[in-house]
Amino acid sequence: MDNLVFMDLLTIGTITAANASTLNDGAAACVLMTEPAAQRHNVTPLARVVAFADAACLPIDFPIAPALAVPKVSYS
């Protein structure tokens, strides 16, 4: 605990998707399965994937990747 750095968020400014990774890093896990598999394992889904898209750009342009991916998703 002694090595933790505590920052006053009021002095940092606005936290956005572009700068949040410098403030905290974490890990996550996501389990994807079919509906029959969920029933077989007796689990209740917490979310449903309805669409996805990806977009590649230069590392310097990473904040615009969502703007490139969203138009690829078609909600019909």
Distance between the termini: 51 Å
Number of helices: 3
Overall shape: it is extended
SSE string, helices as H and strands as E: HHH
In short:
This protein is mainly α and 76 residues long. It has 3 helices and no strands.
Description of the molecule:
The chain is mainly α. The protein has a domain at 48-76. The chain is built from three helices and no strands.
What are the defining features of this structure?
single chain; mainly alpha; 76 residues
Question: What's the helix and strand layout?
Answer:
Layout: H1 9-12, H2 35-40, H3 65-69
